[in-house]
C-alpha cells in the first residue's frame, strides 16, 4: 500500500466500526474519507478486509445467542427455519456480488460523486420511511415469513452501490415488509455475518496476488479499530432505534453527502 499511515488506518478503522451497523454506509464513508485523505489501498482491499473486525464484533456480542441457535438446530425446527431464512436472505447478494465484483470495485468504488449522491438519496428515503405510520407485523427476527427474508435479501443488493448502506437497505426493506424498528435493525446484524464474511473471502481471494506483507500492519490496525468501535455500536444501537427511530442517521447522511458533494465540486 502507498501513501498511508498507521494513524490514517486507525481513523478509518474506527470509522468502519462506528458506521458499519448504522444505516449511513460504512463503505461510502471509508471511500470518501480515503479520497480526501489521499489514502489509497491495494485493490481497495483495506476497505473490505477490515470488515472482518466488524464481523467479529457481532460474533462477540451475539456469541451466546448464536451458540444457542447452533446447538438447538438438531432438535428445534424454529432454529433451522431461522438459519435457512438468513441463508435465503444472503443468496441474492452472494450471486450478484460474485458476478459483479470487478465492476463494483473498479467502477463504483472509484466514484466519490456517486457516493455523495447515494448518501443524500438514501437519507431522504430513510427519513421518509422512518416517518411513515407503519403497523409492525413482526417483532422477532426468528418469526419473519420466508418471503420476507428473501425480500430483505434483494433490498440488500442495493447496497452494492457505495453510499447506499447495507444496513440501511436491509432495514428499510424489513420496515416496508412489516418488521418493527428494533427487529429490522437486529436482522441487519444477523444478515451482516454471512454477507460481510462472503465479501471478505471473495476480496481476499481476488487480491491475494497483489497484497504483500507490507500491507498487513495497515490492515491489522484498521481491523482492531473496527472491532472495538463495532462492539460499542452493536451493544447500544437496538435500544437507541427502539426509542428514537432512524431520523438521526437520515440527517447524518444528508449532511455528509451534501458536504462531500460541495467539497468535490469545489476542490475535486
From TrEMBL:
GO terms for cellular component: plasma membrane. Belongs to the UppP family. The chain crosses the membrane at residues 48-67, 79-100, 112-134, 146-164, 184-205, 217-238, 250-267. Bacitracin is thought to be involved in the inhibition of peptidoglycan synthesis by sequestering undecaprenyl diphosphate, thereby reducing the pool of lipid carrier available. Signal peptide: none annotated. It catalyses: di-trans,octa-cis-undecaprenyl diphosphate + H2O = di-trans,octa-cis-undecaprenyl phosphate + phosphate + H(+). This is Undecaprenyl-diphosphatase. It is a multi-pass membrane protein. Keywords: Antibiotic resistance, Cell membrane, Cell shape, Cell wall biogenesis/degradation, Hydrolase, Membrane, Peptidoglycan synthesis, Transmembrane, Transmembrane helix. Catalyzes the dephosphorylation of undecaprenyl diphosphate (UPP). Confers resistance to bacitracin. It comes from Pseudaminobacter soli (ex Li et al. 2025). It is found in: Cell membrane. One of its GO terms (molecular function) is undecaprenyl-diphosphatase activity. One of its GO terms (biological process) is response to antibiotic. It is an enzyme of class 3 (hydrolase). Its EC number is 3.6.1.27. The keyword Metal-binding does not apply. Its main location: membrane. The lineage of its organism: Bacteria, Pseudomonadati, Pseudomonadota, Alphaproteobacteria, Hyphomicrobiales.
